[in-house]
Amino acid sequence: MIGILIVSHGAFGESLIHSASHVLGKRPLYVRQIGITVHDDPEALIPVGEDHIRFLDKGAGVLVLTDIYGATPSNVATRLLRPGRVEGLAGVNLPMLIRALTYREEALETVIAKALSGGTEGVLRMQPGA
Fold first, then answer.
1. Distance, CA of 54 to chain centre
2. From 100's CA, which of 20, 72, 87, 121 has a CA 20 to 30 Å away?
3. DSSP-assigned letter for residue 28
4. 9 three-class SS
């Protein structure tokens, strides 16, 4: 099973996990989050992230999801990445998280592809009455 770590601004990561739990009917296992605030020292969060990754990695790897590429959470997340073992995606949204959770029994590369497609296909312009 692929572990999932969300590194995001404030309570956004916990809110995503809560929303995914609602959609799935239960809180998923091996999902953690780090919510970064203006008061946090990003350097101090690297060991926290590493501890989460050690807990989350059950042998198949960890997918790190972050909100805005180039912002502090993604800069912290980038420092946690280990190619082939701990991979990362930016721009996390609920469809991306649901897709990652749904396919996380697959290989890490498959989970990455499914999460990316879920994230992008979940963004569309709605039409009235549709």
1. 15
2. 72
3. P
4. strand
Q: Flag whether the pTM goes above 0.90.
A: yes
CA separation (Å) from 124 to 82, 95, 117, 128? Answer: 32, 12, 13, 13
CA-CA distance, 27 to 18, in Å (whole number)?
A: 7
Instruction: Give the whole-angstrom CA distance, residue 98 versus residue 72.
Output: 24
CB-based burial, 41-77: b 16+ in 10 Å, e otherwise: eeeebeeebeebbeebbeebbbbbbbbeeeebbbebb
Beta carbons within 8 Å of 93's beta carbon, 6+ residues apart: 16, 119, 122, 123
pLDDT digits (tens, 9 = 90+) for 61-72: 999 999 999 999
Measured in residues, the chain has a length of 130
